[in-house]
Amino acid sequence: RVLVGTKVDESHANWVTAYNMLTGIRVSVSRTNAKVDRPLTDADFEVKQKSTFDIAGNELVPSAKYDFKFKDYAPWVFRHLRALFRLDPADYLISLTGKYILSELGSPGKSGSFFYFSRDYKYIIKTIHHAEHKFLRQILKDYYQHVKENPNTLLSQFYGLHRVKMPYGRKIHFVVMNNLFPPHRDIHQTFDLKGSTVGRDYKEEDLEKNPRATLKDLNWLRRKRHLELGLQKKQLFLAQLQKDVRLLQRLQIMDYSLLVGIHDVQRGNEENLRDKTLRVFNPGGNNTPEDFDPNSVLMRTPSKLENQRKARELRQMIQSEKPVPMGETSSRMPDELEEGHSRPGFIFNQDDGGFRATHEDNAPGDEIYYLGVIDCLTHYGIIKKIEHFWKGLSSDRSQISALPPQEYGERFINFISNVTMSQEEALRVAQEREAA
Ligand code: ATP
Ligand code: CA
Ligand code: CA
């Protein structure tokens, strides 16, 4: 297995960047968490808190010669958001910064954003474009209000908005958000659905070499798939989706998708971490298992000894299917210990962290869905207008993906509503069609 000689410089650059991201989060989030809670004010939404760090991650006076600078945006708002999403403050910091290990996914989408997982896979760091960053700050109050009124929102859960800058370096903006997929369950199939058919096809023949690729709308339709929810769950799900999409329409957002991760209960967790790693490693689906490179796991390890120890733990983690808490010896945890991942009080996480397929008589189905609306920071701005213009010349207008937000939302809701039905209902619909 070739581990050396590939992109050392680049991965080194990312190593430093990731280290700086995590150090900044550790210092700034601890600083905010250390204070006594208080209600938010309007000014909290505008705050930018600057810090300056030396190479060891120590905070410096702002004018000193620095190794990197860090900005924390609206720290009190995000503290309150994390509380609304019921994250434990200590847990959050430990997951993200406790041992400085992240897996890097590289850049799965077309946007060039980078994705990193926290070592326990609970959180995702996504680097975002400056325009997305500015836009999130602009809509933060609406987003916050929406989360407050909709604790079960399906929208991406934002936990922090930050920026790092190295001397002479680029400014890198990033968000911390929820990983929709559970660390403890294999996801057997993933779909990214927009309700559009143009360009929304993952080449079926590529599935062989990449069985865990993220599939799209046309793959979904080809499989005659449904979100098999019985009446009650269907109603809960669509009602929340409607509310979320109304917000996105009002804020002139588009290009978002419903991410659907499917755990097949019959198959369970039989597959090894190689598959699991594939899933988490490149959700965009352009990687093969061979692309998983332990070197791409970023570690802050100043000493060689520590490096070796962590590498050992990492290997254990990779071999044992589940992230091993640092310092513990690895043995695969029995399944019953892995339970308890449902998030009490959150409707769409009630069944082992997800939402279980259900028959019309309320009997549980064979699948658990992990659902959420992702990539919701694209404002229908000038670029999309241009794209719309060009694509609109050649395609059926309602099928192109860069529609104005109102139409985009309608099409999105329509598509998802049409494919949300119990097995029984799907069967009836198919029979009626045949009869007609
Ligand atoms: P593009 O703009 O080209 O669509 P992007 O860089 O904005 O790409 P996203 O669409 O946000 O990227 O995400 C790309 C893929 O990463 C998704 O299809 C999904 O597989 C995975 N992903 C993104 N967000 C999450 C999340 N919160 N939980 C789990 N997986 C995610
Ligand atoms: Ca996307
Ligand atoms: Ca995007």
From TrEMBL:
Top-level taxonomic group: Eukaryota
What are the alphabetically sorted keywords of the record?
ATP-binding, Kinase, Nucleotide-binding, Phosphoprotein, Transferase
Alphabetically, the GO molecular function entries are: 1-phosphatidylinositol-4-phosphate 5-kinase activity; ATP binding
On whether Flavoprotein is a keyword of this UniProt record, the answer is no
Question: Which residues span the membrane?
Answer: none
Domain PIPK positions = 11-420
- Report the record's Gene Ontology biological process terms: phosphatidylinositol phosphate biosynthetic process
- UniProt signal peptide: none
Recorded GO CC terms = plasma membrane
The protein, known as: 1-phosphatidylinositol-4-phosphate 5-kinase
* Organism annotation: Thermothielavioides terrestris (strain ATCC 38088 / NRRL 8126) (Thielavia terrestris)
Range within the parent protein: 339 to 774 of 1002
